[in-house]
Each structure stands twice: as structure tokens, then as C-alpha cells.
Design goal:
Elements lengths: L9 E12 L12 E12 L2 E7 L10 E4 L4 E4 L1 E3 L11 H8 L4 H7 L1 H11 L2 H17 L2 E7 L6 H18 L4 E9 L9 H18 L5 E5 L7 H14 L2 E6 L8 H6 L2 E6 L5 H9 L3 E4 L1 H6 L4 H10 L5 E2 L13 H10 L5 H8 L1 H5 L17 E4 L16 E6 L2 E2 L2
Parallel strand pairs: 1-4, 1-5, 6-7, 7-8, 8-9, 9-10, 10-11, 11-12, 12-13
Antiparallel strand pairs: 1-2, 2-3, 5-14, 14-15, 15-16
The chain binds N-(iminomethyl)-L-glutamic acid and fe (iii) ion.
Protein name: Imidazolonepropionase
Keywords: Histidine metabolism, Hydrolase, Iron, Metal-binding, Zinc
GO biological process, one term: L-histidine catabolic process to glutamate and formamide
């Protein structure tokens, strides 16, 4: 069959070995079906996948753009659902000291997040913008076309708004390449120059959040709930305001220790809860009962010598699902590589490679509340990555290289 002369922009990708999750529902991981078909043609119209047909039935039109990938594996582009990609400076010295036995907890007292806050406050708008653009390109080259970015290294009204405005500017400028989902994480640490904890919490809730909302500077509000950051009660107060203002909610939970933050899940709807290294079975039962997406961060667990395998086993036992992400940040995960996260998830923690693949695509999109990407299915965005590896089995096995050859965003080649 030949579709002709419709006048709209069409693209076809020929000779694709399509490998993709093939449902958009939040299914238990083990029920997520895999689409694995060689010699397919992906038909794209106006940036959206129209059809996936065998090459023998390939439609052609005269003015179509045609890309022949000659049998290469084509997967949905990846979604990075948890990054702290806007910051200045580095914490290399802390990192190496940690390798020699210092703990992250202790480092938070003298440096830690607040050290990056100082460097970020001292950086110009332009430097922060250029840094973020740089990291965004690094992600794009590896097949990431949707990227969440959290604020959180400003930690006062002016500085957090400044970071979110820079994220917004990059978001506008780069939208044809990578879609940015901004998150307000004012509650990342208690700033050391705050008058008091209570004072800063009130500033976030009364002053900053309404501006973030009015200027539409963030989709999500996130809180780092931990002994080194905010208590469950403080988080409750912050989420209460965020929820009333209409923000979607995310949370850093059970990263460094266990606490009773399941209470927050009972009270507010969370799109995702992230880290979960110290989550208990009962916590995860609430997560799944609420339809929230748990996000595992293998690189952070690896950096901090925690074990996500235990959390993963609980998830599987509960017939649940999960997403993964890099948690890219200068403190606990200085690696802007989704492939590194997959490799570490596989080699260090023993998570199955196809589950890590699903967790980086369809479930990662769900962790941002998105149901129009992350799987090569008709109706989804034509955000695709063409791989240089001959099969998905090679992921995690061949590692330390970027397996992405070409990236399509909304049906256009961008890399
Ligand atoms: O996700 N948990 C809070 N935020 C980061 C660490 C940030 C930092 O150390 O600079 C994380 O691990
Ligand atoms: Fe994080």
C-alpha cells in the first residue's frame, strides 16, 4: 500500500530491528510485554509514530524522508526521570575521601550539598546555563530525549527562582532536542545561612512556591526526607502547600535510613518516590496501592555502598514495577550516563537487563507522569534511539561505551 500526497511531513525508518516495551499501562514488571521484531518500517507523521509494519508492506510516498538503518536495533529514546543537573563546581575531594572511608552523613556537616550551594550561588547565570546545556547534550548523545532537572543548589528564594528560570530558558531553547521537566527542590538541604529551619521552610512555602506556580517554573515539588535534610513532619507541611497549589509531587525517600514517611504517601498523591534503599515491604505496599512509581538509582547506591537489590527483591515479590535514573549530581552520582546506570544495576546489583531497559523507558516516562513515550507504539512520540549493538543482550555485557548511534526526537534526527 502507498500513502501519497497527503501533504503532511512524513518520515519512514527502514530496516529497523524494533525492540521495545509494548504496553503503556503501569503493569507489573514481569507482565510488561516485549516487542522484538526484525526488518520493520516505522512510519512517522508529524512527530508521532503512525505505524510499525514489516518491510515487505512498507509504504512509500514521494516526499517522504527515508532513513535506512540497515538492520540496527531501534529502541524508544530514554527518559531520565531524576537528575540534579543544574549546579556549579565539584566535590571531587569529598568523593575521594569517601572512597577512603569518610561517610556521606559526616560530609554533609562540613560541606556536602551546602558546598555545591556556595559554588552555585557564586556562578553567573551564563555559566549555569552553559553547564546545564552541556550536560543536556551529554544525555542527548546517549539517547535521552526527556530529562527531569531539579533545582536545589540555590536554597534561598532568589537563588532557587534564578535556577528555575535558567532551567526554563534551557527548556525553551532545547525543546526540539530534549524535553526538560523542571522540579522545585528547595527542600534539598537546610541552608547554613538560614535564620532557622522554620524560617526557611516558611520562605519556601509562603514566598517561593507561589512564584514558582505563577510563573509556571516547575512541574513537580520534591523534598529530600532524611536525617541530614528534612523530617517527615516538615515534609508534610511542604507537601501540603505544594499539593494545594496544584503541583505534582515527587520525593527523595529512604535514601540514607528508614523512617515513617509512608505517612506522606497516605496523605498526598506522589507521581514517584525515589531512592528507596532502606524501604521496607510495608512502605512498598503503600507505594503500589497508590499507583506511585518507585525510582531506583543504582549509581547513587553504588557510590554510597548501599544495596538496591534488597528493594528490588521486595518490589518483585509484590509484583510491582520500577523506574531507574542516574540521579546525576556532584555529590552522590557524578555520572550523566543512563547506560552506566543500567550497567551498574545489572553487574553490581544483579537486576535483569530487560527490566532495566523497561525501567529506563516506559516506566521512567511514567515516573514523570508521561504516557506518550517510552515505547515504540502507534500514537506515541517518535522519540527513538538507534543502537550500534547487535542485540539488547549486549547491554550491561558490553559496557563503558555509548551504544547509541543516532537519536530521533519527534521524528527528526537530532544526533
Ligand atoms: O539524590 N539526596 C539528595 N540529593 C542528591 C545528593 C545531592 C548532593 O549530594 O549534592 C541525591 O543523592
Ligand atoms: Fe536525588
Amino acid at each position: 500500500k502507498t500513502y501519497k500526497g497527503i501533504g503532511s511531513k512524513k518520515t519512514v525508518i527502514l530496516g529497523a530491528h524494533v525492540v521495545s516495551p509494548s504496553a503503556m499501562e503501569l503493569l507489573p514488571m514481569e507482565d510488561m510485554p516485549l516487542l522484538d521484531k526484525r526488518d520493520q518500517v516505522i512510519v512517522i507523521e508529524e512527530g508521532v509514530i503512525k505505524d510499525i509494519v514489516p518491510s515487505s508492506e512498507a509504504p512509500f510516498g514521494e516526499e517522504w524522508e527515508v532513513y535506512d538503518v540497515r538492520g540496527a536495533v531501534v529502541i524508544p529514546a530514554l527518559t531520565e526521570c531524576h537528575t540534579h543537573a543544574i549546579f556549579a563546581g565539584d566535590r571531587a575531594a569529598e568523593f575521594h575521601a569517601r572512597i577512603q572511608g569518610e561517610t556521606y552523613h559526616d560530609q554533609q556537616k562540613k560541606g556536602g550539598i551546602n558546598a555545591t550551594v556556595s559554588a552555585t550561588r557564586n556562578a553567573s547565570d551564563e555559566a549555569l546555563l552553559r553547564n546545564l546545556e552541556y550536560w543536556l547534550r551529554v544525555f542527548l548523545r546517549q539517547g535521552v530525549t526527556t530529562l527531569e532537572v531539579k533545582s536545589g543548589y540555590g536554597l534561598n528564594h532568589e537563588q532557587e527562582i534564578r535556577l528555575l528560570r535558567i532551567i526554563s530558558e534551557v527548556k525553551q531553547q532545547q525543546q526540539a532536542l530534549v524535553e526538560v521537566a523542571p522540579t522545585y527542590l528547595g527542600a534539598h538541604a537546610v541552608p547554613k545561612d538560614a535564620k532557622s529551619r522554620q524560617d526557611y521552610i516558611e520562605e519556601m512555602v509562603m514566598k517561593t512556591m507561589p512564584v514558582v506556580r505563577n510563573e509556571n517554573l516547575a512541574d513537580f515539588v520534591d523534598v529530600f526526607v532524611a536525617s541530614v535534610a528534612y523530617t517527615v513532619e516538615e515534609a508534610d507541611f511542604i507537601y501540603n502547600a505544594a499539593h494545594r497549589l496544584g503541583f505534582s509531587l515527587k520525593a527523595h525517600l529512604w535514601e540514607l535510613e528508614h523512617d515513617n514517611s509512608w505517612k506522606l504517601l497516605e496523605k498526598y498523591p506522589f507521581v514517584s518516590v525515589d531512592h528507596l534503599d532502606f524501604a521496607q515491604r510495608e512502605d512498598l505496599e503503600v507505594v503500589f496501592a497508590k499507583g506511585t512509581v518507585p525510582v531506583l538509582l543504582p549509581l547513587t547506591a553504588w557510590h554510597l555502598s548501599y544495596d538496591i537489590r534488597r528493594t528490588y527483591d521486595l518490589i518483585k515479590d509484590l509484583k510491582g514495577y520500577f523506574a531507574i535514573s542516574t540521579d546525576f549530581n556532584p555529590g552522590t552520582s557524578f555520572s550523566p550516563s543512563p547506560w552506566q546506570a543500567i550497567t551498574v544495576g545489572h553487574i553490581e546489583f544483579g537486576l535483569p537487563i530487560f527490566e532495566l531497559f523497561f525501567a529506563s523507558t516506559v516506566y521512567a516516562a511514567k515516573a514523570l507522569g508521561l504516557s506518550d513515550r517510552g515505547a515504540i507504539l502507534p500514537g506515541n512520540k517518535a522519540d527513538l534511539a538507534v543502537l550500534s549493538v547487535p542485540s539488547l543482550d549486549w547491554l550491561g555485557y558490553l559496557h563503558g561505551i555509548n551504544p547509541v548511534d543516532m537519536v530521533f526526537k519527534n521524528g527528526s534526527p537530532v544526533q
